[in-house]
Amino acid sequence: MSTLPTHHETEVTSQGWTVVPDLFPSDLIDALNNALVPSLARRDKIRLSNGVMENCGGTAHHVLADEICYVELLARFERLDPLLKWFFDGNYILNSYGGFINEFDAKTYAHHVHRDIRFHSNAKRFMLNTLVMLDDFTEENGATYILSGSHQCIDKPEDDEFFPQAARITGQRGSLLLFDSRIWHAAGANRTNLPRRALTLTFTCPFFKQQLDYPRLFGYANAKECSAYLRQVIGFNARIPSSLEEFYVPVEQRFYQRGQD
Prior knowledge:
Order of helices and strands: HEHEHHEEEHEEEEHHH
Number of helices: 8
Number of strands: 9
Strand content: 15-25%
Distance between the termini: 22 Å
Helix content: 25-40%
């Protein structure tokens, strides 16, 4: 059960974002930092081979199954379960799990003003972004820009409107930024000689398609070793059967479980 103060719900509703300080322990952050560089190198090798390296330097997508520390981090999100269930008004699953190493003066798609859901809806909240600070976030090393309240704005703001008014999200390593995915934001430029590292996890309603098939990536055979929370959030309760034999099974064995709406 979460012991988080209720002001996080108020901030997400009003300004569209909130920071939970010092959420993750230092030894886990160290392990994640050690894992992120080889994770990035593995993806760069694939991107170079496939000719898709442009505009994506420092970004590592879908790292969940690379190292056990990534799974451990996801498991620790259970402390936030009441907050996330409040946001979605029900269950949710992992939509993407990536990492970002913001190097000196780097320029990628993340540095442009954007939002991470392609449509705007006031009827229901479909997606939530989270950012795990693996280093201290400062204005000098590229703290994220977020335009408070812009989760209510359908149209993208112009740069000359966005950057002067946007908040800079600073915090200590191990802290977590959560924001409504409708909000307009951008990565800041790193003006230091040290990398600024982060993990970015997004969550959606269970009926959204995941950016990668995380249950299959993680391994169906490993599901029984997971906690009930991890089975839910990885997406084992919201799979699609691929055969009649998988479709016609007892309720408790169904791929798509109840309560995934």
